[in-house]
Amino acid sequence: MKEIYLAGGCFWGVQHYLDLIGGITETETGYANGSVDNPSYLQVYTDTTGFAETVHVVFDDTIISLENLLELYFLCIDPLSVNKQGNDTGTRYRTGIYYTSEEDAKTIMMVMRHKAEELGAKPAVEVSQLKNFYKATEYHQKYLEKIPGGYCHIGLNTFKLASESQKSIKYMNARKLIKAILDGDLIAGLANTSAILHEQLDFFWVGFYLVRKLGGETSPGRELSLGPFQGPAACTRIRYGKGVCGTAWSHGETIIVDDVEKFPGHIACSSLSRSEIVVPIMAASEISPADTQNIVGVLDVDSLVVSGFDYVDQFWLEKLAHTLSNDLIWHE
Fold first, then answer.
1. Which of 14, 46, 83, 320 could, after both became Cys, cross-link 8 (CB 3.0–4.6 A)?
2. For residues 139 and 15, is the Cβ–Cβ distance under 8 A?
3. Residues known to be catalytic
4. Which pLDDT tens digit goes with each residue over 170-182?
């Protein structure tokens, strides 16, 4: 077993989030790295003691590595916010990672470097050796289990990322592999992305359709043309607004279809496909999906089971689509 101390705003929300992650065996809320002995909640609340509301985490590193645990931790915080998470403001609500092992410090700094590259700015997350930690009262332990409707700055969808942590970790590992081999080459990048997703996530079908001109200048004068994929043979062309892929393109948003047989106008490339998720890919220079002219392709994934996709798949596939948009050279 290993331990780490994580501060991420109001500690009862962070504790509940961490308790959902597979491999974490024990958590307790408390106060870390302050200047007085045995502080009370009311003392810490004054922001005069230097303490941060913190969760002591014990985890089995044969199930979840410290690196993956920290990646999940970053999903429940705003890493650029200083002394503020959600509606909670004050130095006691600062974000922080406090370690007890110098070996862990190396892993933490590696993750911090990667996050700085991803965010384009240094995370406002305090990193230091643990100086002291005082356990909070029983009232503040597992608070959201006692009061399920209690206030929490962490959104419900974010809790889903933790409750399906093994799926999230598969996506994280796949994304790392993909980012490591992207070199700008569009076809090679999409081919390897399809292969890695197919192998790591065990998808029935995964691949890309690329927007190609038919001769007109408007979206209806374009079509989706089959690109690199993994799985059974697929439809080679899809018109704007047709099927799940064409609809995701025309709407400029991710579409999850729990049962493809109930989707109006579904294009059945394979009768074995039962559910589907399609994620539009935007041109890297554009920031708004509202203008579908800026969509350069879609990422399409099919499952053999009904309701095979949920918010967790959407979250990670949209992050991947953003990575592909930025790291590949897209052209018509």
1. 14
2. no
3. 10
4. 999 999 999 999 9
Residue 7 tokens read as 């501060």
Q: Residue 130 CA to chain centroid, in angstroms?
A: 28
Q: How far apart are CA 330 and CA 237, in angstroms?
A: 19
Segment holding 127, helix H or strand E: strand 125-129
Give the chain's domains with CATH numbers.
2-163 (3.30.1060.10), 167-327 (3.30.450.40)
Q: With contact defined as beta carbons under 8 Å apart, do 76 and 50 qualify?
A: no
Question: What token pair was written down for 149?
Answer: 């409707």
Per-residue pLDDT reduced to its tens digit, 183-229: 999 999 999 999 999 999 999 999 999 999 875 555 557 899 999 99
C-beta separation of 78 from 33 below 8 A: no
Phi-psi region for residue 265, left (φ > 0), alpha (ψ -120 to 50) or beta?
left
